[in-house]
Amino acid sequence: MRREIPLLITGIVGFGFVVQYFVPHYPFSEMSNWFADWFSIVQACAIVLGGLNLMKVSFKKVMDKKDDWGYAVVVILSFVVVLGIGFTGGEEFRVPGTPFDWLYNYIYIPLSATMFSILAFYVASASYRAFRARNFEATLLLVAAFFVMLGRVPVGEVISGFMPVGYRLGDLASWTMNFPQAAGQRAIMIGIGLGIVSTSLRIILGIERSHIGGGE
Fold it and tell me: Which of 8, 128, 154, 213 has a 20 to 30 A CA-CA distance from 66?
């Protein structure tokens, strides 16, 4: 029963979501709102469980003195401080000037910006590896990327400013993004959509059981 009940709930909820898109009558028309309320409850419980599990894992790492256990100490202290400020702030914790607002604006936002800045270097490294002209497809990707990037910066307009409208680098970049890139993106989105449909059907019908630890 530990597997059958979750599979039954998954099937009912999934089937209900499918039906409410095609049957605009009560009670199917209200299923979306009902499920949204239940999802909010589940999400709230998941946040609590996630926080407790984070503390459990971090404390265990500190007690066992595992590698980089100092970062676990930072995680524990940060969690306790933010949680304490959030609880003591009441309903007005996001009002400008409150401690939580200061914490959000001057610690969380700068740290997020730092993470995205670091990601820029990973993107540049991945682009370098992907754009090496090792075969015809990679060469085509390299040429297209070169013209698109050059057409999106002011220097591209300066270089091709003497050319007629429609043949400048900016126009070429726009054409590449609007036609070849859009066509490839739509093909990828169609494939993703088909994959979502097939995976959803496998989960609703109980064929896919990895989400409950039951395997195939």
Answer: 213
Q: Provide the CA 192 distance to its chain's centre, in angstroms.
A: 15
Q: What is the pLDDT tens value at each position of the chain, 216 positions in all?
A: 677 888 888 888 888 888 888 887 787 778 778 888 888 998 999 999 999 999 999 999 999 888 888 999 999 999 998 888 877 766 666 677 788 888 888 888 999 999 888 887 887 787 777 767 677 877 887 888 888 888 888 888 888 888 888 788 888 888 988 998 899 999 999 999 999 999 988 888 888 777 676 444
What's the CA dihedral at 176, 181, 183, 186 to 10 degrees? -150
Q: Which residue has the tokens 């959803």?
A: 200
Is the distance from CB of 162 to CB of 150 less than 8 angstroms? no
- Tokens representing 83 are 């949680």
For 140, list phi and psi in degrees, rounded to 5.
-65, -40
Which residues lie closer than 8 Å to 177 by C-beta, 6 or more apart? 148
Phi first, then psi: give them for residue 65, nearest 5 degrees: 55, 45
Q: Which of 154, 147, 153, 152 is nearest to 131 (CA)?
A: 147
Say if pTM beats, i.e. exceeds, 0.85.
no
Residues 174-208, buried b or exposed e (16+ Cβ, 10 A)? eebeeeeeeeeeeeeeeeeeeeeeeeeeebbebeb
Contact 39, 28 (CB under 8 A): no
